Amino acid sequence: MKFAVLRFPGSNCDQDCVHALNAIPGASADYVWHKDTSLAGFDAVVVPGGFSYGDYLRCGAIARFSPIMKSVRDFAAAGAPVIGICNGFQILCESGLLPGALVRNRGLHFICAHVGLRVEQHDSLFTNAAWTGQILNIPIAHGEGCYFADAQTLAQLNINGQILLRYCDVQGRTSDAANPNGSCENIAGLRNKAGNVFGLMPHPERACDPALGSTDGLAIFESLLNKV
Amino acid sequence: MISPEIIAKHGITPDEYERIREILGRDPNFTELGVFSVMWSEHCSYKNSKLELKKFPTTGPRVLVKAGEENAGVIDIGDGWAMAFKMESHNHPSAVEPFQGAATGVGGIIRDIFTMGARPVFSMNSLRFGDIRGDSSEARTNRRLFEGVVAGISHYGNCIGIPTIGGEVYFDDSYAGNPLVNVFCLGVLRHDQIARGGAVGIGNPVFYVGAETGRDGLAGAAFASRELTEESKEDRPAVQVGDPFREKLLLEACLELLASGCVAGIQDMGAAGLTCSTCETASRGGTGVEIDVNLVPKRETGMTPYEILLSESQERMLVIVNKGEEDKVRAIFEKWDLPYAEVGVVNDDGMMRVREGDSVAVEIPARKLADDAPLYAREAAEKKSPDPLDLSAIPEADPIATLKTLLAHPSIASKRWVWRQYDHMVRLGATVLPGSDAAVFVVREANKILAASTDCNAIYCRQDPREGAKIAVAEAARNIACTGAIPLALTDNLNFGNPHKPENFLQLREAVEGLAEACRKFDTPVTGGNVSLYNESPAGAIDPTPTVGMVGIVEDPKHVTTQFFKEAGDAIILIGNPGDELGASHYLLAVHGLKAGPPPKLDYDAELAVQEAVRFLIREGLVQSAHDCAEGGLAVALAESCMSGEVILGANVELTPDSSRADVVLFNESQSRIVISVAPDNAGSVLAALESRGVPARRIGSVLAEPCLEIAATGKSFAWSLEDLRQTWGFTIGELMGS
Question: Which CATH superfamily is domain B561-739 in?
Answer without folding.
Answer: PurM-like C-terminal domain (3.90.650.10)
